[in-house]
User: Fold 2OG-Fe(II) oxygenase superfamily protein from Dokdonella immobilis.
Amino acid sequence: MPRDGVALPALPNPDRIAAFVRSGTLPVLNLLDPHALERPDTVVVSEPFAFLVAHGQLPEAARPSLGTDFPRYPSAGFFPHERVDCGAAINALIDELTSPAIAGAIGRRLGIANLGQYPTLVTICRALNRRHGTIHTDSRSKIATALLYLNESWPETSAGCLRFLRRADSIDDQVTPEIKPLYGNLVAFRRSDCSFHGHLPYEGERRVIQVAWLTSEEEKSRKTRRGRFSRLFKKLFGAIDRRIGAGRRDDASHLD
Ligand SMILES: O=C(O)CCC(=O)C(=O)O
Ligand SMILES: [Fe+2]
Assistant:
């Protein structure tokens, strides 16, 4: 089916129909195409850990609806996806991002058999504080992580651009060039004890959808509970949260 597909899927779900009706333009029925990850411009790296960097993974026609339907969290950071926070286009995108087809395509590129068998946890970020982005590997409860960026533009700065790193103590020891968090850029990596990544401090709007394939359903419930608590905490104490780590070092790291 074409990426800006005109053909109807076998079972159109309510979010897709709502997105179509609202957009009043071309029906965007296929937001993600698993084959797009196989294009030659996708960078696939296996050492020191497996990751991929892909561009142009979202259709141009979907920019407006994905923009308006993005959740409006009052605080900075990643929060567990809740359908009520998002408009139809974002919910439809998340359905695709967590589908076995996309998991299979990402897993194949990262050398992970049957990635689709693992439970997914989706978290979404609309804005960052300067404390975010310190170097880390992601926690052991994750098999793999994908980050899909949705920013219409990005300033001419390294701040907030994702870096895959060789070590925990240097934000400059990069494996490949940093990735601007622009609309349609997608990265994914296999979590390991050396899957170091992070970015220079950035404060302000920075839209990202994160999918983690987790080791178990228990981890999913635990992380979801923790994420909801953090959302409430930040709502109440957002100013404190902003101040914590506002002056963090560029090379700072955290466990997780
Ligand atoms: O937002 C990003 O680019 C990276 C986020 C991240 O690594 C995380 O939340 O674990
Ligand atoms: Fe991470």
Summary: Residues 31-243 form a domain with the Jelly Rolls fold (CATH 2.60.120.620). The pocket of 2-oxoglutaric acid (ligand 1) is lined by residues 78, 138, 147, 162, 197, 199, 208, 210 (CB under 6 Å). The chain has one domain: 31-243. Helices lie at 14-23, 63-68, 88-97, 100-110, 217-243.
